[in-house]
Design a protein that fits this description.
By secondary structure, this protein is of the alpha/beta class. It contains 20 helices and 15 strands. It has a 5-stranded parallel beta sheet with strand order 7-6-5-11-12, sandwiched between helices. A 4-stranded antiparallel beta sheet has the order 1-2-4-3. A 3-stranded antiparallel beta sheet has the order 8-9-10. Strand 13 and strand 14 form a beta hairpin. Helix 4 packs across helix 20 and helix 6 crosses helix 8. The mean pLDDT is about 95.
């Protein structure tokens, strides 16, 4: 397991403050966990803590004096080269250079596990994402959901959690009936029937295609059935076809799920009834206007759970989204016993967040175990203009079209490049441009460049995995590359704790930039007499950098190309 350097330095600072108090150099007062951050400027050290600034009032001392007294009690550590107290009260820490170079072998030994932490403690976490209604192909919005959820699951795994990826198939309710009616109408029309199309039906070329496909496959079978039965049967068939395409497109994007949970199964297993029984027992259910309502003090108004039969005559369509969400909470947190259930929802579901939290509390569950990640929309741009509709079909732009136009890696990188609460402008032209302007190309080219260096070294007769004297690495660009590689555990910790995998592409670009600077400043394979040891050491260094680049690309679900 990797360790997070800022945590180790924070522990040293806390220990030093405690020792200073024990020695009488500082007065007694409660010690907070010292915040430690990476230094923003090289002259200010690799890491810095501002904790002494916060202690001035408690200690009734100048913060610089607190820092100086703490430094006097700082225990030796192999990774600390020196530490200084600087005005107005910072503790700055520089990493030891010999320790830094020794970490190259540790990175190499860890391989694809480098950066793995045990902070999750084996906590069982479910990440439910995408979960688009199975009434059409995946759109660009659902694609952001897929990329965000999958990368989030990866960083949680890297942080030490047991993670299960789940797709929730919303295959019950009125929208499924409307979908079935829409496909049935297009099916009948494909067979020459003058079937009216439902006013609130699903439009789009894909529905036409489904109707024609069903006509070729089934002939007039569904025209000879009773209508309600035909709608249900056609809806089930159409959902199956949509999910085939969803699975195929997500697999090409590199997204795989451990489980696919269907809403209809909640009713078959009695979970919907169990949820309603719990809510009633807690006094959170009221009946009026022929409907069943959820009433909670944290909500401004009641929310319908079961619609009135006068409004919705079909029993299967009466439960609302909130009723199903309550059943799903029981399924996740009680029946299957996950410690946390993480939902990845679009911004249009923002209003549902307080309802889900209130439902969790009303069911007797800790609302903090239900965690919601809300993401904003994606705008597509090409040729300097916003792309609003598919040029091929006149409908919305689908994941399938993006995959065909730019491929999975640019999609994943671009859709991770902003925090979830920021809108993304996806530039289709930039995504396929092979230049340093394209961050996807820039990062992957760093990996491919290292592969090229290693191939060249082997052609020159060098054993790229031979032992080396890493103490020969003392050029600032060499040490800078090691420093940047050692930040990966911190990035994983930050991304997992904040549920924000957008830190990965930022780190990947920084690591690629530091490597390119090293490549500019330091010739790896040297033919100069006496440089044999340095060549071997630099080959170990670039081999480690290649592994770390591959690791962060894998966390983002991207490939690490050997050639470009």
């Amino acid at each position: 397991m990797s360790q997070v350097l800022c945590d180790q330095i924070a522990a040293l600072v806390l220990q030093a403050l405690d020792a200073a108090q024990s020695a009488g150099d500082l007065p007694p007062f409660p010690l907070p966990d010292p915040a430690v951050e990476r230094g923003r400027h090289e002259q200010h050290g690799d890491y810095a803590s501002s904790v002494c600034l916060k202690l001035a009032r408690e200690a009734r001392m100048n913060p610089l004096e607190i820092a100086q007294r703490a430094i006097a009690h700082l225990s030796p550590a192999p990774f600390v080269g020196r530490a200084e107290a600087v005005a107005p009260g910072y503790i700055n820490v520089w990493l030891d250079e010999d320790w830094l170079t020794s970490q190259v072998e540790r990175i190499l030994a860890a391989g694809s596990d480098f950066g793995r932490l045990d902070k999750g403690g084996g906590q069982r976490v479910q990440v439910e994402f995408v979960s688009a209604n199975p009434t059409g192909p995946l759109t660009i919005g659902s694609t952001r959901n897929a990329v965000l959820g999958d990368a989030l699951a990866s960083v949680l795994e890297a942080a030490g959690c047991q993670v299960e990826r789940e797709y929730y198939v919303n295959d019950a309710g009125s929208q499924i009936r409307r979908f079935g009616e829409s496909v049935l109408a297009r099916y009948a029309q494909a067979l020459g029937e003058a079937a009216p199309f439902p006013e609130d039906g699903y439009h789009g070329s894909y529905v036409l295609g489904l109707g024609r496909e069903l006509a070729e496959e089934a002939g007039r079978r569904y025209l000879e059935m009773e209508r309600v039965a035909a709608v249900h049967a056609v809806a089930a068939w159409a959902i199956g076809q949509i999910l085939i395409g969803v699975r195929r497109d997500l697999a090409e994007l590199g997204v795989e799920f451990d489980t696919w949970r269907h809403e209809q199964s909640f009713r078959a297993e009695g979970l919907l009834d169990q949820a309603l029984t719990r809510l009633r027992a807690g006094g959170y259910v009221v009946e009026y206007d022929g409907a069943t309502w959820f009433r909670h003090p944290d909500l401004e108004k009641d929310v319908v759970l079961i619609r009135s039969p006068q409004v919705i005559p079909e029993p299967a369509e009466r439960p609302t989204y909130l009723a199903s969400d309550a059943a799903y909470l029981l399924d996740k947190l009680v029946k299957r016993g996950f410690d946390r259930a993480i939902y990845v929802w679009g911004a249009d579901h923002h209003g549902d967040v307080p309802r889900l939290k209130a439902a969790a509390q009303a069911l007797g569950l800790d609302p903090e175990r239900a965690v919601l990640v809300i993401y904003q929309m994606v705008n597509l741009w090409q040729g300097g203009e916003e792309v609003r509709m598919s040029k091929r079909t006149g409908d919305f732009v689908t994941l399938r079209e993006l995959l065909e136009q730019v491929g999975p890696d640019p999609i994943r990188f671009m859709l991770l490049s902003r925090s979830a609460d920021s809108t993304i402008d996806f530039d289709l032209d930039l995504a396929v441009e092979q230049s340093d302007r394209n961050p996807v190309y820039y990062v992957q080219y760093a990996h491919a460049r290292i592969a090229s260096i290693l191939r060249h070294a082997q052609e020159e007769g060098w054993a790229v995995d031979a032992p080396a004297d890493l103490a020969l690495l003392h050029h600032p660009s060499e040490l800078g590359l090691v420093r940047k590689m050692l930040e990966l555990p911190e990035v994983i910790d930050l991304a997992a704790s904040q549920l924000s995998p957008h830190y990965l592409p930022f780190y990947a670009q920084e690591l690629a930039a530091v490597f390119h600077a090293f490549y500019r400043d330091c010739r790896v394979v040297s033919s100069e007499p006496g440089d044999e040891g340095l060549t071997r050491a630099r080959l170990r260094l670039v081999r480690a950098a290649q592994g770390v680049l591959a690791r962060v690309l894998a966390l983002m679900g991207m490939s690490a190309p050997e050639r470009m």
